[in-house]
Amino acid sequence: MPYELHYWPTIQGRGEFVRLALEAAGADYVDVARGPASRGQGVAAMMHYLDSPKVVHPPFAPPFLVDGKAVVGQTAVILLYLGPRLGLVAKNELQRLWTHQLQLTIADVVMEAHDTHHPISTGLYYEDQKNEAARRARAFREERIPKFLDWFDSVLARNPRGSACLVGARLSYADLSLFQLVEGLLYAFPLATARALRQAPLVAGLHARVAQHRRVAAYLASERRIPFNEEGIFRRYPDLDG
Questions:
Q1: First and final CA of the chain: distance in angstroms?
Q2: Does some domain include residue 116?
């Protein structure tokens, strides 16, 4: 049975971190909300897991993964579940925990990136909080982006198995997620991120290598890869870059 990924059908968002892992591993999966209702797919099929009282462990929000009887929510937990099944994490327990820690740190950056354009409330339009967004984005691009990318650069530098990967000598889901983080930051804050990457050359190198991975490259060139847009987490508002 294929894995069933449930996420909003028109954005990359947090679901893209899971898509990249599934694609890189060549896994059999269905992106449910993007499928036709005639096949029991579509947004209504996704909403069943959020709304139905028959679902014992309902996810709070997409993304979530359905694998048989297992319903797994939260991006980092989905990847914790998929990692050993897809061969995208080490067998060593300490390395698995380290990979999970890296993923949680990436989740922190993703949340901070989101909050640059919605610093007050997700219920308000960006236009309703532009002044606050400008202040939040300035701190993010001047302080937080360099700090996070510098830290990931140091992780790569300290890897005993070399700086090609974050953990060990093989591609992990953390590498794929760091790639996606950099992609998103380059879309939303191209000027600030380019400056930060010049000070984090190992991160820049990892980003380039993941883009050249055979399955990842094929996915990026396919229609399955949803383009960035101003409905997702990473949004390009020129006023917020600099």
A1: 47
A2: yes
Look at residue 239 and tell me if it is in a domain: no
CA distances 130 to 115, 124, 134, 180, 234, Å, are 12, 10, 6, 26, 16
143's tokens: 């302080």
Strands 29-31 and 3-6 turn out to be parallel
H or E element at residue 65: strand 64-67
| β-pairing verdict for 64-67 and 3-6 | antiparallel
Amino acid identity at 56: V
Which pLDDT score is estimated for 58? 95
Angstrom distance (rounded) from CA 145 to CA 109: 8
**3-state secondary structure (DSSP) of residue 29:** strand
Please state, in angstroms and as integers, the Cα–Cα distance from residue 93 to each residue in 58, 72, 78, 101, 206, following that order.
Answer: 28, 20, 17, 12, 24
- Is residue 72 located within the same domain as residue 117? no
What pLDDT, in 10s, does the model give residues 39-84? 999 999 999 999 999 999 999 999 999 999 999 999 999 999 999 9
Number of domains comprising the chain: 2
Task: Answer with the one of 29, 55, 86 that is the final residue of a domain.
Answer: 86
Task: Provide the β-strand partners of residue 64.
Answer: 6, 73
CATH of the domain at 103: 1.20.1050.10
Sign of CA dihedral 152, 144, 210, 174: positive
Closest CA to 137 of 200, 192, 196: 192
Q: For residue 203, give its domain range.
A: 93-213
Reported as type and span, the H/E element at residue 10 is none
User: Using CA atoms, how far apart are residues 227 and 12, in angstroms rounded to an integer?
Assistant: 7
